[in-house]
Amino acid sequence: MDLIIILISISIALGAQLIISSTYSKYKKIGAKNGLTGFEAARIILDKNGLSDVHIVEINGALTDHYDPRHKVVRLSTDIFHGDSLASLAVAAHECGHAIQDKENYFFLKVRSMFVPVVNIASKLSYFAILFGLIIGLTDLIYLGVAALLIILLFELITLPVEYNASSRARSCLLQEAIVDEKEVRGAKSVLNAAALTYVASVLTSVLQVVRLLLIANSRNRD
C-alpha cells in the first residue's frame, strides 16, 4: 500500500506538470492579434482597476510570476514580461487578478496571507517530526508531523479558490479591456486551467501523504 500511494502521488505530480508544460508551450507560440506584451497588458488591467500605484517588474526564471501584496508589485518572468503570446497575456492577467483581489480584500486571499507564517513553521516542523519519528520509531512524533501536514493541507485548500478566482478575473479583464477577443480567450483559459491543475495536484498529493503516514503510524502501533 505504501508503494502504491507513492506511485500515485508521483503520477499526479508528473501528470500535472506535463499538462502545464505542454499547454504553456502550445500557447507560447501563438501571438495575440493586438501584439501587446505581458507587461503592457498588465499595465492596462491594473490602471483600469484603479491600481496605477502597483508596479510591474521583470524577474528571472521560468513561470516565476507572482503578485507581492506586501510591496504592491506584480513580478513577471522575462518571457511573460516581454512576450506577446496568449500564454504571456494569460499569466500576466492572472497576477493582476491577485492584485485586484488584494485591493478588494478578497476573503480567501486575506486568510491565506494570515496563514503564511504558520505554514512556514508547520512545514519545518512536519519535516523534522516525521523524519525523527520514522528513524527512532516514535509514533507520537509521526502524528505530530501529520498534524503539521494537515495545516499545510488546509493552506493548500484555501489557495484553490484564490487561484481560480484570480483566473476568472483574468479572463474577464482580458475581454473587457479588449486585450484578446472571444476566440483568443479560449486559449488563455486553457493556460489558466492548466496552471490551476498544479494546485489541485498539490492538494491531492498532500492528502495521500497524510494517509500514507497515518497508515505507517497505525501499523507501528500494532507491532
Q: What's the quick description here?
A:
It is built from 7 helices and 3 strands.
Write a structural description.
The two termini are 17 Å apart. The protein has 223 residues and is mainly alpha-helical. It is built from seven helices and three strands, in the order H-H-E-E-E-H-H-H-H-H. A three-stranded mixed sheet has the order 1-3-2. It has helices spanning 2-28, 38-48, 78-82, 86-103, 107-136, 139-176, 182-222; strands at residues 55-59, 66-68, 73-77. It has one domain (2-222). Helix 1 (2-28) runs antiparallel to helix 7, helix 2 (38-48) packs parallel to helix 4 (86-103) and helix 6 runs antiparallel to helix 7. The longest helix is centred in the C-terminal third of the chain and has 41 residues, at 182-222.
Topology:
Layout: H1 2-28, H2 38-48, E1 55-59, E2 66-68, E3 73-77, H3 78-82, H4 86-103, H5 107-136, H6 139-176, H7 182-222
Helix pairs in contact: 1-7, 2-4, 4-6, 4-7, 5-6, 6-7
For the record, the count of structural domains works out to 1
Parts with pLDDT < 50 across at least 5 consecutive residues: none
- The shape, in one word, is elongated
Proportion in helices: over 70%
Strand order of the largest sheet: 1-3-2
Question: C-alpha Rg, in Å?
Answer: 20 Å
- Summed over residues and divided by their number, the pLDDT gives a mean of 94
Strand content: 5-15%
What order do the SSEs take from the amino end to the carboxyl end, as H and E? Answer: HHEEEHHHHH
Gap from first CA to last CA: 17 Å
Number of helices: 7
Largest sheet: 3 strands, mixed
Number of distinct beta strands: 3
What is the structural class? mainly alpha
